[in-house]
Amino acid sequence: MAEILALDDVLDATVLVGKILKKKGHVVHTFTEEDEAIAFARTHPIDLAILDIKLKKMSGIEVLAILKEEHPAMRTIVLTGYPTVETAREAIGLGVDEYCVKPIDRVELEDKVAKVLAAKPKS
Question: Each residue's pLDDT tens digit in the chain (123 positions)?
């Protein structure tokens, strides 16, 4: 079981991620506002962050950089409906563990979360 933070500006996407991963036994904290997700992460342990690239006030990459300051060992999966080589490179440069293209596929998400959580910590 992992503590997972899911941030997407579309409520339905966070609800879907939450339902899928709660069925796998994880504790999922869902957010649609960047500020709320960041504030939560400052006071709670996070094993995995699932972040959308396109958010309301900032990018998922900017949120990732802030969260990594608080939780350097935190794992990350980035979601996007607009995959580009540029965002993939930027995400990988910040240590993103996986990259998923929307619409979210249940089996793909379950597999990627299991793989990321099972991987040895980066040194």
Answer: 999 999 999 999 999 999 999 999 999 999 999 999 999 999 999 999 999 988 999 989 899 999 999 899 999 999 988 778 887 787 777 789 998 888 999 999 999 999 999 987 654
Residue 21: how many other CB atoms lie within 10 Å: 22
CB-based contacts of 20: which residues, under 8 Å, 6+ apart? 104, 106, 109, 110
Cα dist. 98→52, 56, 85, 117 in Å? 12, 22, 14, 11
Residue 26 and residue 59: Cα distance in Å, rounded? 25
Torsion on CA atoms 95, 100, 104, 110, rounded to nearest 10: -70
